[in-house]
Specification:
73% helix; 182 residues; elongated; single chain
């Protein structure tokens, strides 16, 4: 089977590199440290929270991991990872926001307030300020994935693959009864 020759990739623009670096930093801060560690904190204190809130902690960890995986996927300049990155990030973001709303509602109804240096601060405000900014890495992931998916390089790669597939489908069929030996 003939291997498809991939076109040479153009050099990545500095603005795209800057966006990717910003995305990695924001992903490390918000989905990884803030979201996943908030979930881990909830799980570590599960004896005082109950099973529902503990499940929310697990969901926060899962959503942070999914958003981080999506951010890593959109670092690639290939079509398929970028096609997967945007919906994956959207799923993680939706899960994170759904859990955040429920945690805030529960914290406000229970009247939770911080302790030690956060004394008097409502816990719902802490959740909102720590987990809310995951919106920025989500939007950056979707933006970068879309820009790269619709870039010239990826479009050209898909066009060449499509052309190769059509050539393979349109090849003449091999002789069944041996007529080509005459």
């Amino acid at each position: 089977m003939k291997k498809i020759k991939r076109p040479l990739r153009s050099k990545q623009k500095p603005s795209m590199t800057a966006l990717k670096v910003i995305l990695l930093v924001l992903t490390a801060v918000y989905p990884v440290f803030m979201t996943m560690l908030t979930g881990a904190g909830i799980i570590s204190n599960r004896s005082s929270y109950g099973s529902t809130i503990t499940f929310y902690g697990v969901c926060l960890i899962v959503s942070g991991a999914v958003m981080t995986a999506a951010a890593v996927l959109c670092m690639s300049r290939r079509s398929t990872p970028n096609l997967i990155a945007a919906p994956l990030s959207g799923a993680g973001f939706a899960l994170c926001m759904a859990v955040l709303v429920r945690l805030i509602r529960h914290a406000e109804s229970a009247g939770w307030t911080g302790i030690a240096k956060y004394e008097g601060v409502p816990v719902s405000d802490m959740y909102r300020t720590r987990i809310g900014p995951v919106t920025v890495p989500f939007l950056l992931t979707v933006l970068i994935a879309a820009l790269q998916y619709f870039s010239y390089d990826c479009s050209e790669e898909r066009r060449i693959r499509r052309k190769h597939r059509l050539e393979k489908e349109n090849q003449p069929a091999p002789s069944i009864i041996g007529d080509d030996e005459k």
